[in-house]
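[recover] target loaded
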């Protein structure tokens, strides 16, 4: 559950599809124990057995003006017929064997809503293979269940059988402890099991580490899904067409204009900002600059955080800058540390000035004319991305 909560924006509406009603109950309880929200109804279960209370939770979830409940756990009930337009995340924790049901589940996220440009599927059961199925682009066919008479079937999946040893359903036998494959202990005593790594080897013969607890699916220009390893190999393959060495990458990245052109070239090659953001998660570098992630993938250079990059270059950045401009650059650096390189784009400069000084005219009175402010904004980035 911690992997899910760390991956999503916890303020966005999410549906988690579980194997059974009991499974949905357990997931709900775990999320409410780990959540950041203090509201007791942050995560609720909506299944066939929840009756009127579950229907009330569903109506509140569908209300786009309400933020609570934020997460619903379910098993079969919500695979169809839920008109909640602002669902941003679909989490699959049970197998989806029917293409029809898969389309209907994915359809929960495709509802349009103001400001909603995409939704995210978190797939823990390898259901993404359905996207490669020729039937994915076909029209859905009605499948009426012979037992419940519904399309799709609303019968609860029963995964438990009578145990031949204890005679109970579900089994009450004491389960042997699972031994961690990394530390050999039960329970696991790894310092942080969520961050365990998997190594992949690229053409330079050197290995890169990625998180194996989180498997992000990427999509190629042909519409076919790619694993994290395949996508990293793909992006590594286009690097020679974009820059010849680390120094050229550094020069490109240290100028907002050439950096924007570089990202546009990546986009034209089928690599967008969302995919690059996911790459940062996969290599456990969410606090790093995207430049350092690209340099790590291209040249296996050590990853450093944005905070470390600021600390290492701040003296050089402030050299020869007056106190008023130091104050402004310090503000810009704080935004960069918090949000990343997108805060350093040329188009962000007016927004940063308004945030700091409330009006562009006030900023000009304090810092100098527009050309001088722009020059200072561009020049400091050369120092920020200088070789450490």
């Amino acid at each position: 559950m911690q992997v899910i909560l760390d991956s999503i924006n916890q303020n966005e509406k999410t549906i988690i599809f579980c194997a059974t009603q009991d499974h949905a109950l357990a997931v709900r309880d775990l999320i409410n124990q780990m959540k950041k929200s203090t509201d007791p109804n942050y995560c609720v279960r909506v299944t066939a057995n929840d009756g009127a209370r579950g229907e009330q939770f569903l109506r509140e979830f569908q209300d786009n003006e309400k933020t609570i409940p934020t997460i619903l756990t379910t098993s079969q009930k919500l695979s169809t017929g839920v008109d909640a337009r602002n669902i941003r995340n679909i989490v699959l924790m049970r197998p989806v064997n029917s293409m029809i049901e898969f389309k209907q589940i994915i359809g929960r996220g495709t509802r349009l809503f103001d400001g909603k440009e995409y939704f995210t599927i978190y797939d823990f059961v390898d259901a993404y293979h359905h996207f490669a199925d020729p039937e994915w682009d076909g029209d859905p066919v009605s499948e009426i269940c012979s037992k419940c008479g519904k399309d799709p079937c609303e019968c609860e999946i029963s995964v438990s059988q009578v145990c031949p040893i204890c005679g109970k359903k579900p089994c009450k036998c004491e389960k042997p402890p699972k031994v961690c494959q990394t530390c050999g202990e039960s329970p696991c005593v790894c310092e942080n099991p969520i961050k365990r790594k998997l190594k992949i080897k690229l053409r330079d013969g050197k290995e890169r580490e990625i998180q194996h607890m989180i498997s992000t699916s990427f999509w190629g220009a042909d519409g076919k899904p790619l694993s994290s390893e395949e996508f990293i190999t793909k992006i590594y393959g286009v690097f020679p067409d974009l820059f010849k060495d680390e120094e050229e990458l550094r020069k490109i990245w240290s100028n907002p204009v050439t950096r924007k052109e570089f990202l546009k070239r990546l986009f034209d090659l089928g690599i967008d900002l969302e995919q690059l953001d996911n790459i940062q998660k996969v290599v456990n570098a969410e606090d790093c600059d995207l430049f350092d992630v690209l340099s790590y993938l291209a040249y296996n250079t050590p990853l450093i955080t944005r905070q470390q990059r600021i600390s290492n270059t701040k003296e050089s950045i402030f050299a020869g800058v007056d106190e008023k401009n130091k104050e402004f650059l310090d503000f810009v650096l704080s935004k960069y540390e918090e949000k990343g390189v997108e805060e350093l784009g040329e188009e962000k400069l007016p927004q940063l000035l308004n945030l700091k000084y409330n009006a562009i005219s006030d900023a000009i009175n304090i810092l100098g004319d527009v050309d001088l402010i722009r020059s200072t904004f561009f020049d400091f980035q050369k120092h920020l991305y200088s070789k450490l």
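[recover] notes: The two ends are 38 Å apart (CA to CA).
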